[in-house]
Amino acid sequence: MAYNYMTAEEAARFVKNGYNIGFSGFTVSGAPKLVPTAIAKLAEEEHAKGNEFRVNVFTGASTGDALDGALARAHAINFRTPYQSNKDLRTGINSQDIHYADAHLSHLAQDIRYGFYGKMDMAIIEAADITENGEVVLTAGVGIIATVARLAEHIIIELNHNHPKELRGIHDIYEPADPPCRREIPIYTVKDRAGSEVLKIDPKKVVAVVESDAKNGTAPFSPADETTMKIGQNVADFLAQELKKGIIPASFLPIQSGVGNVANAVLGSLGANKDVPPFTMYTEVIQDSVISLMKEGRVTFASGCSLTVTDPVLSDIYGNLDFFKQRLVLRPSEMSNHPEVVRRLGLLTINTALEADIFGNVNSTHVLGTKMMNGIGGAGDFTRNAYISIYTCPSTQKDGKISPIVPMVSHTDQSEHSVKVLVTEHGVADLRAKSPIQRAETIIQNCVHPDYKELMWDYLKLAKKTHTPHTLPQSLGMHVEFAKSGDMRNTNWADFEK
After folding, report:
1. Is the separation of the CB atoms in 16 and 45 below 8 Å?
2. Are residues 334 and 290 in the same domain?
3. CATH number where 79 lies
């Protein structure tokens, strides 16, 4: 079939006010870049004419500024799910200009199939190649596009020539059957493949093909500081000890790691620890550190949803595809995050908390309980079903004015029932097989910063001897104090007894 090639601006004209649009990708990797920016310009034109123009945006996770940022600044987004990290989009969400529904990443594709979000009007896909019969070779990220492309009425292909056609074979595109009587997902090891190496679409749905050479432009993470390095070392030492105890099998278990400096520090420490054998990863985002460890032989195989690596590292991968295609697979987020697979494989999961309380509850989304940061992402998918679930955070923020460990979290994303281990630069709190008071004592002793230890011990003394010892007037007192004075260290529990 002959496709209609056109500019991004021409393709954007197919988008109508109120459309539900699903985008490919997971982070900036695999996300289209030219067409979303053109849609933002179209929205600005329509707004200047006095016309309403907003769309509902569905993605695998966060995207890049060319998508989330451009559409947010153009006031072109009515609704957004499931995860974001763009500052302009965040501003729109927290000002209620944009409706945002936080969601577990493994749930979104199936919830779209179930009809929870209405019909899907359009899918916009970044591709390395498309054949006449509708076989699409995706680029460096997958996300929810398998479901969206099948259900959408119209499709726009953004054909990005920075990604080689030879990527064919690195993807595993699979959709599970819907209930009732859903069968198991046939992934029994990290290396197993369940689906197709290409995304198969109906060519008749393709209304436009837009050629692109836009790069991902993934920024490198800032160098790890002393605190981050110590957190990474504490996590690695803990897992090495569990291996020695026989809690973790001698062959080790697959790793899931979040995104950022702490994740890189953890992986670096695991890679350097000779007590830990070479290991595999079953995760969302494959970062630069994973590729380095793969080249060193410390990571033997990695399954993810995206190659969120810097442009030089991506070029290295593309220049050595024969090597990396034997060691990498990219899947839809429904598969990379699926609770069934997470539990079957026995993942060791490592994620980051905005704040945690002394009983093991974690807030990973809301600043002071009200302002959305990024979203829950895949943390819930992994945490609830992990072999061992680990959360990390520094013991202080903002020059010591904030303690991320508090008596009660201001918002709960992961409950004490799912969080097994908490780690800061000061130590490790193993929360397994402990009552609430035992968890509190362990966290205060091992993880809380010295500037806040006495404050935390005093809180426990104030609380009544109940199963979970809280005193409600003081439970959010540190948050109240920060809002008042800008420094949690000024908290005086007596102020809340008046």
Report:
1. no
2. yes
3. 3.40.1080.10
Report if residue 155 sits inside a domain. yes
Instruction: Dump pLDDT digits (tens) for 213-269.
Output: 999 999 887 788 999 999 999 999 999 999 999 999 999 999 999 888 888 888 999
Which residues are the active-site residues? 284
Contacts of 287 (CB under 8 A, 6+ apart): 221, 259, 263, 264, 267, 308, 309
Domain that holds residue 377: 226-458
Q: Are residues 341 and 247 in the same domain?
A: yes
Domain finish residue from 212, 245, 273: 212
How far is residue 427's CA from residue 129's CA, in Å, rounded to a whole number?
49
Length of the chain: 498
Task: Looking at 182-303, list the stretches that DSSP marks H as alpha helix, in order from N- to C-terminal side.
Answer: 226-245, 261-272, 288-295
Residue whose C-alpha is closest to residue 27's, from 291, 232, 306, 259: 306
Residues 302 and 391 both lie in one domain: yes
Say what the pTM is: 0.97
Around 469, how many Cα atoms within 13 Å sit in the side-chain half-sphere?
Answer: 18
Sequence-separated (6 or more) residues with CB below 8 Å from residue 441:
460
